[in-house]
Amino acid sequence: MKTLIAALVAALVTAMPAFAESPRIFTSIGQQQSVNSTEGQMRYIGPRAFWNLQPVLGVSYAGNGSAYIGAGSAYTLRSDNSGLFARLSSIAGIHKRGSGRNLGGPIQFRTSIDVGVMTSRGTEFGIGADHRSSARIYRPNPGLNTVYMFATLPLR
Question: Is 96 buried (19+), middle (13-18) or exposed (0-12) by CB count in 10 A?
Answer without folding.
Answer: middle
